Amino acid sequence: MMPLLARYFPPLDWGRRYTTVTLTSDVMAAVIVTIMLIPQSLAYALLAGLPPEAGIYASIVPIILYALFGTSRALAVGPVAVVSLMTAAAVGQVAEAGSMGYAAAALTLALLSGAMLLALGLLRLGFIANFLSHPVIAGFITASGILIATSQLKHILGVPAGGHTLIEMLGALAAHLDAVNWPTLVIGVLATGFLFWVRKGLKPLLQRAGLRPRTADLLAKTGPVAAVAVSTLAVWLLGLDGGGVAIVGAVPQGLPPLTMPDLSPDLVSALLLPAALISVIGFVESVSVAQTLAAKRRQRIDPDQELIGLGAANLGAAFTGGYPVTGGFARSVVNFDAGAETPAAGAFTAVGLAIAALALTPLIFFLPKAVLAATIIVAVLSLVDFSILRKSWGYSKADFAAVLATILLTLGLGVEAGVSAGVLLSIGLHLYKTSRPHVAEVGLVPGTHHFRNVLRHRVRTNPAVLTLRVDESLYFANARFLEDMILDRVAEDCPIKHVVLMCPAVNEIDFSALESLEAINERLRSIGIKLHLSEVKGPVMDRLKRSHFLDQLTGEVFLSQYDAWETLVLQKKDDTPHARATA
Amino acid sequence: MMPLLARYFPPLDWGRRYTTVTLTSDVMAAVIVTIMLIPQSLAYALLAGLPPEAGIYASIVPIILYALFGTSRALAVGPVAVVSLMTAAAVGQVAEAGSMGYAAAALTLALLSGAMLLALGLLRLGFIANFLSHPVIAGFITASGILIATSQLKHILGVPAGGHTLIEMLGALAAHLDAVNWPTLVIGVLATGFLFWVRKGLKPLLQRAGLRPRTADLLAKTGPVAAVAVSTLAVWLLGLDGGGVAIVGAVPQGLPPLTMPDLSPDLVSALLLPAALISVIGFVESVSVAQTLAAKRRQRIDPDQELIGLGAANLGAAFTGGYPVTGGFARSVVNFDAGAETPAAGAFTAVGLAIAALALTPLIFFLPKAVLAATIIVAVLSLVDFSILRKSWGYSKADFAAVLATILLTLGLGVEAGVSAGVLLSIGLHLYKTSRPHVAEVGLVPGTHHFRNVLRHRVRTNPAVLTLRVDESLYFANARFLEDMILDRVAEDCPIKHVVLMCPAVNEIDFSALESLEAINERLRSIGIKLHLSEVKGPVMDRLKRSHFLDQLTGEVFLSQYDAWETLVLQKKDDTPHARATA
Questions:
Q1: Gap from A2 CA to chain B (nearest CA, Å)
Q2: Residues 437-456 of A with CB under 8 A from B
């Protein structure tokens, strides 16, 4: 058992084993991640509708706080695409883009999200992330990727446009097609093409040039920095900003400011639901990245402590001019591949970004926004994966319905409606499926003690004894189904004198199901039929003994179904005049 | 298979077998139910905050429509206590009690509720009522009984007071205690005492006087009519209304009017959620009464057709001056005991009530409201049953939590918050329970082919082979739990080379769980461990075959766990240098 303090403060654990070798690996990884994060942070801030520095700020203090409280050795925390989009959608509902209120609302959103994550972590309620099923997440990420890429087209075209759903965005773009800025479009298309080529073509080229695969891979990741440098130079030298090319402009030089989120009740209540959705989505994404990387080194992460780490990171973002953050896939993989061994790598990355914020912001004055948009488009298109539709269709229609609904609603109504509908639909479909459990009427396989489905096997049955095998735990959602089914079944079949419920697959009987069993027992009693149970599992039996059900039960509880057959059919044949064995 | 038209229009079924004997039984039952319903309908209208005639109107056309479309032979549809309380809570939020808008909003509520019930019935979605667990319903009914009884105290005390939660009501009563009307209080207390005595003492007395138990029982049910008659006469003769005793006053004479519900968008959107809750609560109550009575005669009801019947009844109420209705327990039992054989008994009851509405309303001019309140109090206190708390505590803490939360929130925040919280909590607790399935590490019982929990039995295991038996279906809520558990388990135990998942109790693997299995397989592969499955059920195996999982699986699928043991431990002992059998 880990000591309490070390559980809540992981550096006490890994810090004891920190060596100069670990230090060297961590610093190396930090340099590479920093270079990759500078354009990415600027771009995601643009996506969230915030000034570029917000992206840098959101990567400094949050990374350090996650390093102190998180359990993953390689997770890199900061702005990510989907959460940036969700921030834009949430904040856009309460404030005008570009206004003072907009940035303040983003801080409030980070604060609420941080507080929720922290509370869930301290209460050890990480399991609620499980309510997001994999297909819903996959559908949501795919739809978000499309929304994000579409939202960036305005920067590539150099037109003003907005909207939070696919239709709104396309409509706004179409309305401005006559105002396309051609220099911007040229820069945007060139940058997008270059970045795609970097992804697909640069690595093989570098390998053919003699570099080792890992080095080639990491070098290819710096492609966006090259695009940023070249395009900034081009705009500056050619004076393209005079020709209408939107540039990043003046970014304040300095460390992250201390900021105070706006806590007015109206704003807080308007942002509660978005904050909850951002928290859960961010947590699910982050944990799955952290688990994938931890498993590769046989390390473990603690999901509840991860909530605390992400909560602290978001609170940090709220008070230092950032916006909601989470563990990003791309940056964490780069961090891991570059050799990060402890969360200290994150802290060194934060130092790198702080230096950038202090010294490098004048260099990006002439950086065209179209290039940042290109970075985003290229990054998010790798998230778009419609194969989930085909795969889930082949496997389960219910899962397919959940994916399709999530994708369509996310595209059509926006991120919040999409993910909410997906969660509700998953839970609803699960309850629906388990609300109609498989119940088989069974009979004795001649010459054995086994009982099988009468519809699939040639078995012996007895007209006075109805034996039903229930293949599901009994709980409130299916309790009434069982009641209906049994009563319907006996209503149409008069010779029945005994009903046996065979329960080998019943893992639980909740209080609703207990009351249903009592009702079934009572109603069967009123028409002269006895209810029996067989093969009840130990824990279920223990629980039934705590109720009065077994006292009221008109029949018996048989250890095995064959005992029931022997007692009800073979021995008591004379009591039940209609009884006769049939094939 | 029943013909389609007969399914949706049940009189085609029972009407063919209608005889004069059935007619006599039905008319007899109708007379008794009519006498019982007159004071009850007036009282429930008072509870709903509506004029008394609304209660009568709500019992006429709805009964006839239910008789045409419902499937229960004995269910009596009309105003009931809990739905009347919910109506008061819902309509009170959008209109002033006693105003024109109030009665109009009640019509809208009936229309929405009717439309929802009808839609659910036509879409055959009756299963959604299952989401209300028995403990939640029991807690809700008990808390509602207390709220209803408390709400009537103002009529007994003769003071003006309001409120929709227990605290509001008690506060309002306390504020008016100095204004108690003493004649009203005397009438109210006498009537309440008399009605309690009628319930408990009159039936034995009548039996001792030589009446048969059933006749005595039915006669005792007419006690409220006696209270109404005597108190009305007393007020009239003594001129008590001049002394401040609130009376029913002028009730319009005539058949139910044709009314048009208000469909303004604001009103409709404000009443949507209340209408949904009223529909579900009403449906659940009604179906459970109908099932209890149908089972006694080995008849069956069709829950989806019941939705259509109740939907039609509520639409009828909306267009004829009523308010939301459902099948009532007390009236249905009386109807059944009085010998009703077909829904035609309901139609005859409607005729009786129509005659009352046409001719008898002047007779109740002097009826004191305190007597109606006494009828309600005596009726609803039989609903209050705190034993559900004790019973659920003994059986399951999760169910207890759901009951307690429902009771406290219903009393403290009102009916809508109470029932919503109960439903959400039930679903949440169920998902929580199944999100942490029981997983046992198993080993071979020496000398057998059986595998048992290593913690409970002396079994043989092998350090290179980890065998886990999963006692739950695998779906999104527990998929990640399994992932975490297995990866944690192997992270701390290095000699493991094979993980076997034993699946005899896995009834389903959904797409999320499939992806988790793929992730587990992939992560185990990356650290050199093979994943195997054993004892997979047929339908689960069929589904797995439709995915690529089995192609990617690093290990094998064994028919029995003993096969897995033979292959991995007995035959391959040489491949795994660390392998040794341990006790």
A1: 14
A2: 438
- Which of A133, A424, A473, A476 best probes binding to B when mutated, by most B CB atoms within 10 angstroms? A476
Residues 6+ apart with CB under 8 A from A119: A311
Highest mean pLDDT among A512-516, B487-491, B528-532: B528-532
Instruction: Render A283-348 in DSSP notation, one character per residue.
Output: HHHHHHHHHHHHHHTT----HHHHHHHHHHHHHHHHHTT----EE-HHHHHHHHHTT--STHHHHH
Asked whether residue B582 is assigned to any structural domain, the reply reads no
User: What CATH number does the domain containing A514 carry?
Assistant: 3.30.750.24
Q: Is A360 on the interface with B (CB under 8 A)?
A: no
Q: Kindly write down the DSSP assignment for every residue of B545-564, as one continuous string.
A: HTSSHHHH-SS-EESSHHHH
Tell me what ipTM this predicted complex has. 0.72
Report chain B's terminal Cα–Cα distance, integer Å: 60
The encoded tokens of residue B540 equal 């689960």
Do residues B391 and B452 share a domain?
A: no
- Using pLDDT thresholds of 50, 70 and 90, give the confidence band for residue A78: very high
Sort out which chain B residues have CB atoms less than 8 A from A136's CB and list them: 476
> Looking at the complex, does the CB of residue A130 fall below 8 Å from at least one CB of chain B?
yes
DSSP 8-state code for residue B254: S
**What is the model's pLDDT at position A517?**
92
How crowded is residue B160: how many other Cβ atoms within 10 Å of its Cβ? 11
CB A478 within 8 A of CB A446: no
- pLDDT tens profile B220-253: 777 788 888 899 999 899 888 888 888 888 888 8
In the prediction, which pLDDT does A248 show? Answer: 85
Domain co-membership, A459 together with A394: no
B135 vs A: CB within 8 A: yes
For residue B130, the chain A residues in CB contact (below 8 A) are: 431, 435, 476-481
pLDDT of residue B114: 96
Amino acid at B406: T
Same domain, A250 and A358: yes
B334: distance to nearest CA of chain A, Å? 18
The answer to whether position A47 is within a domain reads: yes
Torsion sign over Cα A534, A540, A545, A548: negative
pLDDT of residue B577: 42
Q: pLDDT, tens digit, for every residue of B405-442?
A: 999 999 998 888 888 888 888 888 888 888 888 888 99
Q: Read off the pLDDT of each residue in A443-463 and give the average, rounded to a whole number.
A: 86
- Gap between the Cα atoms of A24 and A14, Å rounded: 16
Higher pLDDT, B576 or B286: B286
Residues B335 and B474 reside in one and the same domain: no
Planar angle of CA A125, A127, A129, nearest 5 degrees: 110
Structure tokens belonging to residue A555: 């029949």
B398 and B465, same domain (yes or no): no
User: Cα A310 to the chain's mean position, in Å?
Assistant: 15
Amino acid, single-letter form, for residue B563: D
Tell me, yes or no, whether A414 lies in a domain.
no
What's the structural domain count of chain B? Answer: 2
- Residue A355 belongs to what domain range? 20-402
**How far, CA to CA in Å, does A64 sit from each of A299, A302, A313, B423?**
21, 18, 8, 41
Do A294 and A361 have their domain in common?
yes
Which chain A residues are Cβ-neighbours of B394 within 8 angstroms?
546-547
pLDDT of B582:
40
Q: What is the mean pLDDT of residues B20-34?
A: 83
B interface test, pick of A306, A395, A514 with most B CB neighbours within 10 Å: A395
Structural domain contains residue B7: no
User: Which pLDDT value is given to residue A499?
Assistant: 94
Residue among B299, B431, B547 whose CB faces A395 most closely: B547
Q: Are A166 and A222 in a shared domain?
A: yes
Q: Are residues A297 and A183 in the same domain?
A: yes
